[in-house]
Amino acid sequence: MEPMANEHAALQDKGNTEAPAMRLRSRKVRKELNQETADALVRRLCHLLDAGDFFGRNAMLPPLEKIGKLFLATAEDQNQSEFNCAVSPKVRQQVPLLFQAMAGVMEERTGLMIQSTAEINGEGFGRGLLYSGRVILVLKSLRAGAPFPFTSAEKTIRYGVECIEEGQAFLDKYKVMTSEHGLLSLEG
Predict the structure, then answer these.
(1) Whole-angstrom distance, CA of residue 94 vs CA of residue 160
(2) Backbone phi, then psi, for 128, in 5-degree steps?
(3) Cα 86 off chain centre by
(4) Sequence-distant (≥ 6) Cβ neighbours of residue 178 within 8 angstroms
(5) Where are the domains of the chain?
(6) Cα 66 from Cα 36, distance rounded (Å)
(7) Which of 11, 26, 123, 168 is most buried, by CB atoms within 10 Å?
(8) How many CB atoms lie within 10 A of CB 140?
(9) Which tens digits make up the pLDDT trace of 20-75?
(10) CA 110, chain centre distance (Å)
(11) Is the separation of the CB atoms in 120 and 145 below 8 Å?
């Protein structure tokens, strides 16, 4: 039998106890978002968008509508990014804004000064960093602009919250390790 036929037969076998396990492993389980962190990220992102809205034309919009209008990429922007591996201006705007918003949320949570750096070249290769002093908390590589451009607020918020949680987890682990061995034992 062909491999596809074997898989299909295994999934249809009701007496086989491995069939449900095979289906569960193939699905990617999404973790529940921390709503407090998501709200803080939306608020920070809206503040950054307001700073760029010089005449306040969009100041009265609700937060998610403001993000949709000023931050999210349209289908045209996405097509422009996919053509000849060129990065659209929308992607060049999204990358630093999102990393700045994530840094602001982490500053609120940790009380430390968190900085962000994001760079992306014309072909979409680059990186985004969140760091505090000499400690890099989050490092994301951008290849062909992926995961940017974001076209939905849900994906944007999920990506941001996951990065914030990753950075906070690393910072907590770093604090535990340096408390036992001293700060200089982990450097150099």
Answers:
(1) 12
(2) -125, 135
(3) 21
(4) 185, 186
(5) 35-178
(6) 19
(7) 168
(8) 18
(9) 444 545 455 567 888 999 999 999 999 999 998 888 888 888 998 888 888 888 77
(10) 19
(11) yes
Length of the chain: 188
CATH fold for the domain made of 35-178: Putative cytoplasmic protein (1.10.3100)
Asked if residue 120 has pLDDT above 50, the reply is: yes
Output the pLDDT for position 10: 47
- ∠ CA 170-187-174, nearest 5°, is 20
* Single-letter amino acid, residue 72: L
Rounded alpha-carbon distances, angstroms, from residue 38 to 60, 82, 165: 21, 29, 11
Q: Which long-range contacts (CB under 8 A, 24 or more apart) does 130-139 make?
A: 130/99, 130/102, 130/103, 130/106, 130/163, 130/167, 132/171, 134/187, 135/171, 135/174, 137/106, 137/166, 137/167, 137/168, 137/170, 137/171, 138/102, 138/163, 138/166, 138/167, 138/170
